[in-house]
Amino acid sequence: MLSETRSRLPATRKFGKYYTFAIPSNSRYHTPTLQPSREPMPTESVDPDHKAFLVDYMGRLHRATAVDDAVFAQISATRAAWLRAREQGGRVIFIGNGGSAGIASHLAIDLAKNASVPALCFSDASMMSCLANDYGFEDWIAHAVRLSARAGDCLVAISSSGRSKNIINAVAQARTMKLGVITLSGMNAENPLRNLGDVNFWVDSRSYNIVETTHQFWMMAAIDLVIGRAEYPAS
């Protein structure tokens, strides 16, 4: 059965006329009427245990992202390294595993699109499986750097624990190619990655999510420092 309402669709214009279509009421294109919820979610009632957990959790994040002049200097030095790479005809290469790989991809896109600094990350599944199959997982990123990096590039190595062997080996490869290196790590203050870069960020937390959130926040701050603004259109 056809609904009584008929739609005029400009996309169907032909020879100066518009065609009108009747949409069946049982069609998958039929827009259902939305009913407001009769039981809105509570806005003030919070389980005491949940609140205690979240207060502690937000406190951890606040402490992790608290900055001093040393962190400001590192963010400023990161900006300088990225601009130097661009001036030398190089790119910024972001690497990471798991959640850090997702952050690497996000940062590469934003740095290239919003800050006009050429950037990339090794996220192609075929490349990963090929190099891991041929050289082993601990060395696949090092070989990706060997194959793809060039003079003037800057490597940003992200590892929450600072102990990921494929990240450490990639940094070693970057060093043999005389690339600039920036590291981001957390957890143990004595992790091996922390001392391998020209600029070394370290998050004083043992929570993976807080370390990763802080890494992304600091790098986004560096991107916006390149742009010179905190607010700008998406395109």
UniProtKB/TrEMBL annotation:
Keywords: Isomerase
Domain SIS: 82-233
Keyword Nucleus: no
GO biological process, one term: carbohydrate derivative metabolic process
PROSITE patterns: SIS (PS51464)
Molecular function terms, GO-annotated: carbohydrate derivative binding; isomerase activity
Pfam families given in the database record: SIS_2 (PF13580)
Keyword ATP-binding attached: no
CDD domains tied to this protein: SIS_GmhA (cd05006)
Cited PANTHER family: PHOSPHOHEPTOSE ISOMERASE (PTHR30390:SF7), SEDOHEPTULOSE 7-PHOSPHATE ISOMERASE / DNAA INITIATOR-ASSOCIATING FACTOR FOR REPLICATION INITIATION (PTHR30390)
The name this protein goes by in its record: Phosphoheptose isomerase
